[in-house]
Design a protein that fits this description.
- This protein is mostly beta strands and 362 residues long.
- The protein has helices spanning 169-179, 240-243, and strands at residues 6-8, 17-22, 28-33, 37-42, 49-55, 60-65, 71-76, 80-85, 91-96, 101-107, 112-117, 121-126, 137-140, 145-150, 154-159, 163-168, 192-193, 200-203, 210-215, 221-226, 230-235, 247-250, 253-255, 265-267, 270-275, 282-286, 291-295, 300-304, 312-317, 323-328, 345-350.
- The two termini are 35 Å apart.
Length: 362
């Protein structure tokens, strides 16, 4: 990696970036875009190197790696969930929802791929690399999902109407294995409905629509963000003492520049959250173009980086936490259609030793 603090990747997507993710054990980076493509980059040195582009039939709304940096999974606006062999480029259709697929999460612990769709369902794909493919199970949801995140034992699904479901992954894997059967016909996949009660049902601590959710790496809880410039930190333990620790705070708000609105703040959506894999602190990215680092346990902001050219659409930490990938795309938060230099781009930031470490209690 270059000695400079950060650099912008060359050969960026031609349209808005929906999601980015580092490989679990390398500095390869996947980028999903509304230009109907997924991009694979090598980010070990500036300005990065575009290795391959994988075209799709519709905008790609989410992407994630599987067990290693040779397999990926994509969620598309055309309702499809696909597996990509990153070496050969071969794509396999895993399932088809009845509306756009907005989010993906892969559990290496349980070999499960979870897809969430605007048709208000989850598809649970057990062993998605098996041949023949097992039939995915369908879990109905009470509301339209917006974001997924998981730990080694929990799956968190944030939805409309401030609803939030938490599933136990071990129970989910067992039930899906029992519910699943091998099939070679794509048209029969996704028909196994699983009426599964979540481990916990919760109502979001945030009053407005949830934008993102991210789980703590220590499996203790999660953070969620809203369109109204707030982040909530909550814990899985249902005990009264643990629930008393949850809180929410304001962020990504900037002073208004309008003469007729003195002493007021412009409130931006918090589009992205990502926990540091080692220190357990987390980064937030907002429609104001800023990325901030937070010590969630001690309720302190660690630092805020310089403003990026446009809205932050996605964040991802490298496996060892030394690098943070920042995706930038114009989000039209100012209501103006003339974007100017609001192109899509990805920055790779190298952090100094202890830069993302919590500061401790005040």
């Amino acid at each position: 990696m270059s000695t400079q603090t950060q650099f912008e990747l060359s050969s960026p997507p031609s349209d808005a970036i929906s999601a980015i993710q580092f490989a679990p054990q390398s500095l390869r980076l996947l980028v999903a875009s509304w230009d109907k493509s997924v991009y694979l980059y090598d980010t070990t040195s500036a300005p990065g190197r575009l290795l391959k582009t994988f075209e799709h039939r519709a905008p790609v709304l989410d992407v994630c790696f599987g067990n290693n940096d040779k397999e990926a999974y994509t969620a598309c606006l055309d309702c499809s969930v696909r597996r990509i062999d990153l070496t050969t480029g071969f794509q396999t259709l895993l399932s088809t929802h009845s509306a756009g697929v907005c989010a993906l999460a892969y559990s290496s612990t349980h070999s499960l791929l979870v897809s969430a769709s605007w048709d208000s369902t989850l598809h649970i794909h057990p062993s998605p690399t098996s041949t023949p493919l097992p039939t995915p199970s369908t879990i109905p949801l009470p509301s339209k999902p917006f974001s997924l995140s998981l730990t080694s034992s929990k799956l968190v699904v944030s939805m409309a109407s401030r609803a939030l479901h938490i599933y136990d992954l071990k129970s989910l894997a067992v039930l899906c294995a029992q519910n699943s059967g091998d099939t070679n016909t794509l048209e029969h996949r996704g028909e196994n409905t699983l009426e599964l009660e979540p481990w916990q049902r919760r109502e979001s601590s945030l009053k407005f629509m949830t934008r993102a959710v991210a789980c703590m790496p220590n499996d203790a809880g999660y953070a969620s963000s809203s369109i109204e410039g707030r982040v909530a930190v909550e814990f899985f333990d249902p005990s009264a003492s643990s629930q008393a620790r949850k809180y929410a705070f304001k962020c990504h708000r900037q002073p208004s520049t309008l003469m007729d609105e003195p002493n007021t703040d412009v409130v931006y959506p918090v589009n992205a959250l990502a926990f540091h894999p080692v220190h357990g602190t987390f980064a937030s990215g907002g429609g104001d173009g800023f990325v901030a680092l937070w010590d969630g346990l001690n309720k302190r902001r660690i630092r805020q980086y310089q403003k990026y050219p446009a809205s932050i659409s996605s964040l991802s930490w490298g496996g060892d936490g030394r690098f943070l990938a920042v995706a930038v795309s114009h989000g039209f938060e100012d209501g103006k259609e003339n974007t100017g230099d609001g192109k899509a781009g990805v920055w790779i930031r190298e952090l100094g030793e202890g830069e993302a470490k919590g500061k401790g209690a005040k």
